[in-house]
Design brief:
The complex is a heterodimer of chains A (337) and B (251).
Chain A: H1 2-14, E1 30-36, H2 43-50, H3 53-56, E2 59-65, H4 73-78, E3 83-86, H5 90-97, E4 103-107, E5 120-124, E6 142-145, H6 151-162, E7 171-174, H7 177-185, E8 191-193, H8 200-203, E9 208-213, H9 214-217, E10 225-228, H10 230-235, H11 237-255, H12 261-270, H13 274-280, H14 293-305, H15 322-336
Parallel strand pairs in A: 1-2, 1-3, 6-7, 6-8
Antiparallel strand pairs in A: 3-10, 4-10, 5-8, 5-9
Chain B: H1 2-25, H2 37-50, H3 52-84, H4 86-100, H5 108-115, H6 119-143, H7 147-155, H8 160-197, H9 203-213, H10 216-244, H11 246-250
Helix pairs in contact in B: 2-10, 3-4, 3-6, 3-8, 3-9, 4-6, 5-6, 6-8, 7-8, 8-9, 8-10, 9-10
Classes of the chains: A alpha/beta (337), B mainly alpha (251).
Chain lengths: 337, 251
Amino acid sequence: MRRRECLGSLAFGAAGILGDCSANGHRENSLLRVATVPGIYAAPLHLANELGYFTHAGLALEIHPMSSDAETVPPLATGQIHAALASVTPAFVNTVAKGRHLRIVAGRQIASPTCGSVGTLYGNRIAFPDGLSDLRRLKGKRIAVTSATTFTGFCLDTFLAVAGLSADDIERIALRQQESIAALVAGKLDAIVVSQFDYALEALSPVVIKGIGLAAIFPNFQASYMMFGPSLLEAAPQIGTSFLAAYLRGTDDFMAGKMPKFLDEYARNSRLNAEKLRWGCHDWFARNGKIDLSSVRRSVDWMVARKFCQKRLEAAQLVDTRFVDAVEAGKTANAIK
Amino acid sequence: MSMRRAGLALWLPAALLAIWQILTSAGWLDPLFFPAPSTLLSAGWHMLRQGELGEQTFHTLVRMFIGFTAGSWAGLLCGLAMGSFSSIERSFEPLISAVYSTPNLTLLPLLILFFGVGDAAGIILVATGCFILVAIHALDAVRRVNHTYVELAANYGANRVAILRKVYIPACLPGIFTGVRLAVGRALIIAVSVEMVSPRNGLGSMIWLAWQTLSTEKLYIGVLTTGFLGLLFNATLRGVETRLIPWGRQS
């Protein structure tokens, strides 16, 4: 058994993940590099790490913060990182279309109607004196998204489609979130779609009004996933399963109310209200990691329609359910025992 | 002689491209991240024929030239005034030094608050960068004028206008032109950078979109086109400088 573990570890090491067997057969933890954009949605990962679930599974986790979901794709494709927690981006779909073995292996966050401001439209009160309930009022307005190709771009196009408007009916501006909030408050923008959890916007209520969120249009839309690169998909799937099982254990704990220290630091660094952050989004995760194919399909259809992706891939071509199934089977086996 | 100069200028890029092509063809470079130069050439040609490359380049050039023209003229006048009057120099120099040492893009959020999220903020940022460079070089050029020549011209009976025309302007032009040449490069850098941070259209926007969608061919073409434009402007201005100010190189 020990020999098999060592051989597994060596195969893993060959794929770029450090696993070491010393002469006496002692097995050290395998180093696993995971990329994520810092934020509330990385909380289950940090919680699982802080509670030692990864160490218990024989893994040493190295968390690499990224500034955008698209940035996780090149290091994932080259094996510099082994897993990523991100949304489905055109970069991901295009890389898979070019034959790279990257896959979505688990579902994570669901766009929530109650969780802060993610995927929500905010308007300047002067630009929308009658409120933002009627999306047709967006016509002719200046609206900022963080990037045309990301989740906020998808949300804005969804809002426009619901209102029967096209992309040409508005002036779309790409700006980072903090700059767009400042411009919105200064009246230089009419509306923004928010990408990150930011309760600071609620405090601006005299100037800023809250509009519709994506969850009101697509309930239970899955907005974020776990992706694996070739090293976990091909060379060491058993380590991928262990990682996912530990992560999902962290998700269960997070949803049950346990909080990682990471959230306090994040709140402090982002000047957010820690208490609101603590309870804001803890119940909007896919508990069992099941992937919602309709959400993936919707995202890909949008990317193709906007010409961010040249090749249309079926949702099933982007997904590998072996890991979620294996974790589920493990749970069932434990339950039977 | 000119053939030799052209050969010296071209051999290194040509060699690098050849090595790049060989490494990609042999499979030593990952074509997903390092597409072969031949692939880039065909993708670039396709983008040119579709009009995409021309359109994006046009948007960048418009922002660049409006900002460059406004900023350079203002910088020239300010630099000359500072060089001519010490009170103006003392008033303006701290501000110019402060802005010079501030990374241009850090001013963008403030400019967006003042001028809105349209093109104005980006163009003003380009103009600011050009203003600072040209002003500093114009000031330096005036300072470096050899006063022996001024005194000599005065001794020969030249009036103030003649001294300005015959001594100051010819003596200052090489320095000012160096500032203008550097300002064109700076204008291009700032225009593309602004388009990357606040993308609407232009080469910077194209590069950013290519990065976000991992369309590496487009990304390389955007970067190479920007580099080519920089090279073109620099070579053109050097040619103009040699023709208009032949004494500049000698001095």
